[in-house]
Amino acid sequence: MNLLGFAQENRYEVPTNQVAEANRQPVVLLTGASSGIGLALSRRLLKEPCRLILTARESSLPRFAAAGIHESDRIAILPLDVTRLEERKATIEEANRRWDGVDVLINNAGVAFRAVCEHVTEADRVEQLNVNYHGPMGLIRLTLPRMRERRSGRIINISSVGGMMAMPTMALYSASKFALEGATESLWYEVRPFGIQVTLVQPGFIRSDSFKNTRYSALSRSAAENPGDPYRAHYLHMSRFIERYMGRARTTPDDVARHVIKIMRSRRPPLRSGATSDAHLFAWLRRLLPRGLYHEALYRCLPGIREWGPPRD
Ligand SMILES: NC(=O)c1ccc[n+]([C@@H]2O[C@H](COP(=O)([O-])OP(=O)(O)OC[C@H]3O[C@@H](n4cnc5c(N)ncnc54)[C@H](OP(=O)(O)O)[C@@H]3O)[C@@H](O)[C@H]2O)c1
Q1: What angle do CA 144, 110, 153 make, to 5 degrees?
Q2: pLDDT, tens digit, for every residue of 79-133?
Q3: Of 60, 193, 202, 267, which has the most beta carbons under 10 Å away?
Q4: What is the set of active-site residues?
Q5: Domain map of the chain by residue range?
Q6: Mutate to test the pocket of ligand 1, among 29, 31, 37 (most ligand atoms within 8 A of CB)
Q7: What class, spelled out in words, does domain 18-307 have in CATH?
Q8: Angle, CA of 220, 57 and 169, to the nearest 5°
């Protein structure tokens, strides 16, 4: 049994010429590896007995050297903008050429738009879905043939509490993570007969600066700054709320990284795995409360809700 547990879950017959393959040092491909959860995970993976393909957008590659991470015989650092088909193809071709394929694919790269539905343009919608949904599914598609041949492999998609519940001003983000969750659930059924394990990791609030990377649409940015805009209170209160909770959160990117490593080592990883205590709480509330009651309670708890909308008489 190797450290990352390949093939041990494979309850189907493994041809003898694949026994040696089952013992090979696993190849882990990570997206969005140069910051936040991705960088924390890169650091942890460096200590694991595996070969690493750390990827980031071309402009972010210098961050690896700044973090003391360099190419070696077991570390490949490659440019990968997950929205670009040709870069996805080049990355998987290089993985196949160098190390005969990918054993663990971790789709971590992600962005979060903040905008009410009325302020979302077609271009915003496409960009959000390209990074958080189309990109990961495109990479999975290219990675699967080799995993199927091997009859082993792991796919870990970093989702979010936003993939189990939606909050105002986060429609785009939730749409992308709900899409990722739905497709990953289908995938779980489809590839299990090939011995491939699939998991959605769901972090909630994390003590990190990633809210600083939040994208505003052109319309939502100007609305948030315009005192006369009917949605200004939505942005004001939601932004403050998210920033405050991220600042107070006890979970760090490194805690999520540790959680992912635990999933990689697990003999029977679950389809969904909450990575923070608020993720467990929301999953529990969604399961137990009748939907109508849940939405009513959440609405009443929204920060500063009495100030949202037109002025009250
Ligand atoms: N932080 C949280 O509270 C939280 C909570 C729940 C879920 N998550 C999820 O966790 C994952 C990591 O987020 P994080 O908190 O670590 O945020 P982060 O610090 O903003 O990191 C996001 C990473 O994604 C990369 N990225 C963005 N667009 C990309 C593209 N087109 N191609 C390739 N890489 C791209 C970024 O690279 P650049 O530096 O080049 O932009 C960055 O490395 C995301 O999927 C996010 O949705 C985060």
Answers
A1: 20
A2: 999 999 999 999 999 999 999 999 999 999 999 999 999 999 999 999 999 999 9
A3: 202
A4: 159, 173, 177
A5: 18-307
A6: 37
A7: alpha beta
A8: 20
